[in-house]
């Protein structure tokens, strides 16, 4: 795997784990415009801000911080089995449950908006 810059690795990790800027902003406390500017190469961020963003990504998508590290170091990209081993079965089950809950909430909101219209 080719070694990526911090910015490239951040963007690739966020895209790979499908972490929205809005969700990351809410969890990390870093503004969406600040995240977007960093992703797009318009501004740099401090080490403290990067730590908050990586912590936020890890909270949203367990295993994302390690994936980011692999990209920066040029290590090999883990396959699904490696990711499962990295995050552990308990965290995987929690992540799956949270994903289903989020999907269910989205479906309920869509159903409510259809009923209202």
UniProtKB/TrEMBL annotation:
InterPro entries: Lambda_DNA-bd_dom_sf (IPR010982)
GO molecular function, one term: DNA binding
Record-given protein name: XRE family transcriptional regulator
Organism of this sequence: Microcystis aeruginosa Ma_SC_T_19800800_S464
Taxonomic classification: Bacteria, Bacillati, Cyanobacteriota, Cyanophyceae, Oscillatoriophycideae
């Amino acid at each position: 795997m080719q070694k990526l810059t911090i910015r490239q690795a951040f963007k690739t990790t966020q895209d790979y784990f499908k972490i929205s800027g809005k969700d990351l902003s809410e969890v990390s406390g870093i503004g969406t415009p600040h995240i977007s500017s960093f992703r797009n190469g318009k501004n740099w961020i401090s080490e403290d801000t990067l730590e908050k963003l990586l912590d936020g990504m890890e909270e949203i998508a367990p295993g994302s911080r390690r994936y980011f590290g692999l990209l920066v170091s040029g290590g090999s990209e883990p396959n699904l089995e490696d990711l499962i081993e990295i995050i552990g079965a308990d965290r995987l089950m929690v992540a799956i449950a949270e994903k289903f809950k989020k999907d269910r909430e989205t479906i309920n909101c869509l159903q409510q908006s259809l009923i209202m219209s």
